């Protein structure tokens, strides 16, 4: 993929808590990697998790990210190239002569994209540290940030760097160290660079999308969007049709439990149909809670078409793979209770949803009863005796578990709960007339709606007053605002009705505190005499139904047939278009008159709609009816049937270029699959994106590339054969049961595949073994311990050249392969020393003639009167000034996979 501006890039991430093994893989670091970093604080965690999940970088070791270590120019280039998905494989050589293989392709790609430049025409200086001002330029070029209209006030930033620093300040990617100092020449750490990339990646994008999916625990997922979404497109508004309150919108989300390579199900089944959701205040985070199911194992999570942003944009379909293994114990966070005088119930709040089955509770040492609370992460503790307001009690719970079976930590857990005195009486804070016969009353605290029965009325009439009862028709979510209405005819022949609203002192809050005194105020209702007016006339998507929308709720005046008779359609030629003889009329959505033309579609064109008076009425006191009106109706040709079918992927288990154990793989191992979409056709860019593939939850090996056959841009509906070319030299471990996961492939209509998982794949290891180390043995100065990078066979002394003080002394070397003990798999090398009694010289007899020959043999000591007791060279002796070992004959040395070893040199001293 060529370099593109930020607004057009699509990145996928995962955040996983450090203690919860739950990671989104698109592609992703393994859960173990994310969990094990010991040097990542909470300030850097989200950024580091994001970089790991998107394959942008790795840690400096299995347990460290290297957060506080300075980042080099070469590593920064690798970060940027991966973040932007630059085409590193095809980047042109930029002429830098100081690049190693690890960074070369990334540096060439970054330089080609004019994101960063070399320190000269031929050097990039990849090992040099990067400063904050250099970082500013790289980020601005990479993400096309604009600093226009901003002028930084830093005294240490000169004109060469001002525009770049201005852009970072304007966008909030980073600020200064102080109000006056940017730290322009300070080095940037790996942790800081991770933060800067993360922030640049998450600047407000042009189009909405799913950012990440991750598990909070075994019962809950968190789906993050980059923009606020329309709540009604993800969570149902009502419980009609048997939906659970707050349930997910039907068909929008799917959770699929994946299978093991042997075909058996590896994960619990969890259904989106019985899951519920809650949307964060900013509309960007959807928390999904399962019904009866528990997430454990591998799942594909799909967000299908149908989600919209708050500003009405479609959110593209999205699918990803997550791994969930909840190993985090729930924690008792707090307890609370309140009462007017006393209570026997306390509420305990936990860190996650909990199960009280088999759990035990005590209040001040006395057994108590546990039951489910009002929220999934709460439990109610019921005492056998009342607890007075103001009293503090000790609560202990034992064996409370989360859905995954993790027992509370510590177990048991204790907390103190004070029963707060709730003696404040509720009060009316405002009353607002909201309709012809409705008003709302807002109270200072939540109230018990049942106590309003027979306690709310409007009194009118003077000497002989009459009382009109009002009843509750709605209560707000917080319990403070109550809507009241009456069906009585309060107006008689008048246009208004004025009386005294009385809310009885018997009204109570949820603790039983009464209002204290009757509340009264004058209140006036105005008879609604406004006729319903037509707002618009449209058709449904099939053009088989005409929808007349009114300014208020309406109902039919007469029968459906009588209503049909009041509707006349005239086409653009002036011809009256007769409705079908079986057409019907009804009210939908409370304020729409629907004319159903019995399955007969109106032809495309412009119509005049004449609606006679008295077709609908508002059902209020005056039964206000519509006036006669003439409206324009534009009927468009029906859109072609939407393509909702997902592309179909067919996988196989053949790996070309690998014949099994003990056989070195070819330079490339090729995995092949096919994908076809008979509707709109395959989006080939999704096929070619390496980010859409993982093997065993990991990004594909470095250097992997993709080729296709059978694809035609002019006819994209054909079957496409896709080949993933894995460089064997980047595969460090052979496997017999790997799984390739293919996700986020889509067609041109935006339908995303259900992630495909291969059965067991056999993939060969292709990393050549080499000499890893040569060291003088601890406690034995006459022995060199040689170790290879992995287990090898075929090692003999002939493979090595030992050079001591500039002379090849291999002829005097001896060799031992170690097969047991802590040095198993290593090789010992010793060099024999000789003694020339005539000259009194200790030496290495290079030419093997038993006499010391100056210039040929290696002298170790002179003037030695008696032969030394040691027969081997002491490598730590001052006489040994330099020593190296070359592995230079490798034709017989192979690893267990059959990969031939590579030559190497190790300098010992």
UniProtKB/TrEMBL annotation:
Gene3D superfamilies registered for this protein in UniProt: 2.60.40.1220
Keyword Phosphoprotein attached: no
Stretches that traverse the bilayer: none
Sorted UniProt keywords: Signal
Span of the signal peptide: 1-31
Ranges where the SLH domain occurs: 31-94, 95-153
Pfam families, sorted: SLH
Protein name (database record): S-layer protein
InterPro entries assigned to the protein according to its UniProt record, in alphabetical order: Cu-Rt/internalin_Ig-like, SLH_dom
Superkingdom: Bacteria
Top-level taxonomy: Bacteria, Bacillati, Bacillota, Bacilli, Bacillales
């Amino acid at each position: 993929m060529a370099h593109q501006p930020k607004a057009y890039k699509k990145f996928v991430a995962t955040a996983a808590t450090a203690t919860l093994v739950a990671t989104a893989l698109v592609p992703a670091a393994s859960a173990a990697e994310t969990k094990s970093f010991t040097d990542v604080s909470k300030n850097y965690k989200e950024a580091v998790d994001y970089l790991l999940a998107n394959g942008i970088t790795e840690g400096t070791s299995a347990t460290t990210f290297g957060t506080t270590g300075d980042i080099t120019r070469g590593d920064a280039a690798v970060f940027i190239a991966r973040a932007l998905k630059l085409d590193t494989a095809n980047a042109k050589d930029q002429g830098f002569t100081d690049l190693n293989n690890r960074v070369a392709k990334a540096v060439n790609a970054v330089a080609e994209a004019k994101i960063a430049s070399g320190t000269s025409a031929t050097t990039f200086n990849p090992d040099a540290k990067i400063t904050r001002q250099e970082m500013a330029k790289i980020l601005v070029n990479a993400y096309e940030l604009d600093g226009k209209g901003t002028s930084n006030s830093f005294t240490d930033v000169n004109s060469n760097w001002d525009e770049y620093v201005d852009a970072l300040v304007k966008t909030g990617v980073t600020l200064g160290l102080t109000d006056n100092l940017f730290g322009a020449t300070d080095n940037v750490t790996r942790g800081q660079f991770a933060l800067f990339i993360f922030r640049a990646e998450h600047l407000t994008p042009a189009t909405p999308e799913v950012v990440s999916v991750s598990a909070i625990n075994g019962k809950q997922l968190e789906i993050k969007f980059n923009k606020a979404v329309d709540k009604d497109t993800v969570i149902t508004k009502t419980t009609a049709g048997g939906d659970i309150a707050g349930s997910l919108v039907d068909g929008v989300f799917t959770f699929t439990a994946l299978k093991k390579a042997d075909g058996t199900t590896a994960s619990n089944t969890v259904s989106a149909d019985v899951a519920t959701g809650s949307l964060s205040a900013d509309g960007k985070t959807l928390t999904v809670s399962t019904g009866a199911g528990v997430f454990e194992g591998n799942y594909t999570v799909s967000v299908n078409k149908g989600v919209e942003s708050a500003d009405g944009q479609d959110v593209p379909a999205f699918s990803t793979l997550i791994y969930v293994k909840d190993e985090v114990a729930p924690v008792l966070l707090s307890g609370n209770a309140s009462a007017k005088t006393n209570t026997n119930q306390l509420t305990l709040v936990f860190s996650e949803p909990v199960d009280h089955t088999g759990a035990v509770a005590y209040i001040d040492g006395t057994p108590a009863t546990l039951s489910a609370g009002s929220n999934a992460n709460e439990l109610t503790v019921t005492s056998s005796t009342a607890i007075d307001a103001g009293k503090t009690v000790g609560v202990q719970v034992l064996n409370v578990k989360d859905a995954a079976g993790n027992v509370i930590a510590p177990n048991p857990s204790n907390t103190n709960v004070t029963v707060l005195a709730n003696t404040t009486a509720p009060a009316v804070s405002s009353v607002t007339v909201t309709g012809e016969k409705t008003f709302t009353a807002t109270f200072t605290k939540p109230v018990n709606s049942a106590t309003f029965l027979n306690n709310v009325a409007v009194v009118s009439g003077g000497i002989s007053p009459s009382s009109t009862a009002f009843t509750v028709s709605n209560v707000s979510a917080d319990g403070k605002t109550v809507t009241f209405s009456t069906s009585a005819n309060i107006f008689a022949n008048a246009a208004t009705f004025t009386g005294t609203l009385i809310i009885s002192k018997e009204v109570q809050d949820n603790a039983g505190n009464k209002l204290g005194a009757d509340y009264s105020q004058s209140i006036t209702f105005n008879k609604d005499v406004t006729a319903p007016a037509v707002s618009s006339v449209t058709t449904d998507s099939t053009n088989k139904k005409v929808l007349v929308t009114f300014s208020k709720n309406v109902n039919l005046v007469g029968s459906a047939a009588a209503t049909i008779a009041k509707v006349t359609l005239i086409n653009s030629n002036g011809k009256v278009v007769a409705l079908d003889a079986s057409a019907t009329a009804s009210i939908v959505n409370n304020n729409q008159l629907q004319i159903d033309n019995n399955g007969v579609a109106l032809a495309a064109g412009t119509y005049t709609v004449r609606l006679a008076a008295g077709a609908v009425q508002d059902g209020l006191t005056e039964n206000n009816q519509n006036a006669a009106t003439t409206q324009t109706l534009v009927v468009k040709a029906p859109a072609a049937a939407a393509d909702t079918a997902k592309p179909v992927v067919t996988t196989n288990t053949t790996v070309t270029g690998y014949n099994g154990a003990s056989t070195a793989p070819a330079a490339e191992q090729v995995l092949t699959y096919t994908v076809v979409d008979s509707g709109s056709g395959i989006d080939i860019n999704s096929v070619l994106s390496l980010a859409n593939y993982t093997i065993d939850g990991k990004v594909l090996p470095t250097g992997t590339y993709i080729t296709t056959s059978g694809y035609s841009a002019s006819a994209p509906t054909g079957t496409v054969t896709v080949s993933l070319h894995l460089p064997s030299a980047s595969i460090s471990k052979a496997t017999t049961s790997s799984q390739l996961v293919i996700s986020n492939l889509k067609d041109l209509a935006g339908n995303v595949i259900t992630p495909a998982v291969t059965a067991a794949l056999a993939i060969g290891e292709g990393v050549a073994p080499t000499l890893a180390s040569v060291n003088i043995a601890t406690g034995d100065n006459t022995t060199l311990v040689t170790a290879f990078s992995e287990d090898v066979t075929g090692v003999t002394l002939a493979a090595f050249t030992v050079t001591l003080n500039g002379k090849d002394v291999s002829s005097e070397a001896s060799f031992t392969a170690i097969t047991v003990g802590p040095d198993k798999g290593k090789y010992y090398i010793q060099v024999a020393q000789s003694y020339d009694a005539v000259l009194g010289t200790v030496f290495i007899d290079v030419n093997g003639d038993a006499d010391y020959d100056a210039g040929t043999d290696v002298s170790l000591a002179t003037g030695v009167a008696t032969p030394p007791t040691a027969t081997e060279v002491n490598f730590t002796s001052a006489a040994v000034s330099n020593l190296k070992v070359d592995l230079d004959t490798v034709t017989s040395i192979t690893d267990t996979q059959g990969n031939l070893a590579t030559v190497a040199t190790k300098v010992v001293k």
